[in-house]
Design goal:
With 108 residues, the protein is mostly helical. The chain has three helices and no strands. It is flat and about 85 Å long.
């Protein structure tokens, strides 16, 4: 859409801005007590959610710790085997990734 003069463009923009102002003229901002109530409700909701997440974290940590301790007390060889196997598997996977990356660089 081309305008012949800046005057036409200015008139068109002014008309569009006025129509936009009319659409949002009836919107009122909430009162201060309503905002304070909303903020207080949100703070309470966040605190409850944080407590719930902390409780879930503690329960999961307690379950995992009890599993580890039960394995350690009932089968120490299995426990130490797992303790050695996991870092070894991580090192092997990192080495394989590095080798694959070098091969891809060599192909390019």
């Amino acid at each position: 859409m081309r305008f012949n003069s800046d005057e036409e463009l200015l008139n068109k923009l002014s008309a569009e801005l006025e129509s936009l102002d009319l659409q949002y003229a009836d919107v009122t901002s909430p009162s201060l007590p309503e905002l304070e109530q909303l903020i207080a409700a949100e703070a309470i909701r966040r605190m409850k959610r944080q407590r719930k997440e902390l409780l879930i974290f503690c329960l999961v940590a307690l379950v995992l710790l009890s599993i580890v301790l039960s394995i350690l007390s009932s089968a120490p060889a299995l426990y130490w085997g797992l303790q050695a196997l996991i870092p070894l598997a991580a090192l092997v996977s990192m080495g394989a990734a590095r080798i694959r990356l070098r091969r891809e660089e060599a192909e390019e």
